[in-house]
Amino acid sequence: MKVPDSLSIAAKTTLKRIFASKSYAGFPALLSAHEHSPLLSRRRAEIISSRVRLVAGAFAVLTPLWIIIDVLAFPWPIMAMLMAGRIVTSAAFILLALYCRGSSDIRIAYRGMAAMFAIPTAFFLFSHPLLSHYQMAGMADAIAAGYAFLPFVMAAGLSVFPLTAKEGLAFATPILLSEGVVAVMQVDMLSWSSHLGAFWLLFLITSVATLAGMSQLSFMSVIVEHSARDSLTGALNRLSGVDLLDFLFHLAKRNDEPLSVVFFDLDNFKKVNDFYGHTEGDRVLARFSSAVKKNMRKSDLLLRWGGEEFILVLPNASCDIAMEKVAQLRKQGFGLRPDNLPQTASFGIAEYTADNAKTWDELVAIADLRMYQAKSTGKDAVVGCGT
Ligand SMILES: Nc1nc2c(ncn2[C@@H]2O[C@H](COP(=O)(O)OP(=O)(O)OP(=O)(O)O)[C@@H](O)[C@H]2O)c(=O)[nH]1
């Protein structure tokens, strides 16, 4: 789709991105979590774990409250056994709510979700066969029948989470299996066609809930991407960039891997604005960042630090690798200015082990200082580690 020339560069870039997403470029990300950007993965982990905490907290209270109804409806000893089951279930929910504290680690979010579905599944496998072995009538029979619907409630609960298709399937499998186990245990009580009908309904609810989770995920990925990026250059904005840099810094420390940052600033950019206007200046900035992005690995990050200052974050890259990367970028060029001269930049490189930086902001400050040294040596220059 062609974007009209009269629009500003920022508006054009945004529209192009929207059209790109309309071509379903993001579709694989709805199937598998491996396609997600680190930013989306982190936000998703935060949402999943905070919802697990919320649901676990709510059920930690509601599960024991139902004891009152069980006491009124069921005779001894069923009522006592159900009460014990509910107390254990509620304790498990309390532990889960304490464990899941809005973590941005997707592994913790997965574990929390698995536990959140495992707890009621275990309660279902305990309570449903127990109740079906007793003959009941009236109110007791109606309440006992309600216990059979627990897997349906759990399957519907999948819709609360932003999930991929694979994740939906993975979390639904134990729920479907528990229904199958109960069907086998009660094969003599209900006809196969009734079991098959219940299983089919459960499968349909699971599919619809997974689709709802996928649509949540798709909506969320658009919002995260749009709010995280600077619309003119497509680089990460400072707020989300710093968030990821902090994460990558801690990851590098934990894994004892190098992490380099390249701080760079366009040379004499003010003159472009002053002589040719801000629209031309915007074009130069957009060309500059797209030239940088062309040479980035998928795991590298480009941040717009402010104005015409950028930071390139290179995980698992030593100082020498960062120097090579900058040499490669400069060789390839950053596009032309309106006067047809090549746009240049000044670079400062820092690596956290070589420069003994304790925090990511210390690392950025060192690279920034080196960038100023590069400016003071006449611009269009690089100052690397150890200088
Ligand atoms: N067009 C445009 N200009 C911007 C944007 N952000 C910052 N600028 C301009 O960038 C210019 C930065 O000027 P200076 O800090 O003097 O930098 P410089 O001219 O590149 O000089 P050196 O850094 O010393 O090479 C200012 O004119 C800002 O208005 C932007 O988004 N679009």
Automatic annotation (TrEMBL):
Xref: InterPro entries: Diguanylate_Cyclase, GGDEF_dom, Nucleotide_cyclase, Rev_trsase/Diguanyl_cyclase
Listed SUPFAM superfamilies: Nucleotide cyclase
EC category: transferase
Residue ranges of coiled coil: none
Membrane-spanning parts: 52-72, 78-100, 112-131, 143-161, 168-187, 199-224
Reaction(s) catalysed by this chain's protein: 2 GTP = 3',3'-c-di-GMP + 2 diphosphate
EC number in record: 2.7.7.65
GO molecular function, one term: diguanylate cyclase activity
PROSITE patterns (UniProt xref): GGDEF
Keyword Oxidoreductase: no
Keyword Acetylation: no
Stretches assigned to the GGDEF domain: 257-387
Keywords linked to the UniProt accession: Membrane, Transmembrane, Transmembrane helix
PANTHER family per the UniProt record, alphabetical: DIGUANYLATE CYCLASE DGCM-RELATED, REGULATORY COMPONENTS OF SENSORY TRANSDUCTION SYSTEM
UniProt protein name: diguanylate cyclase
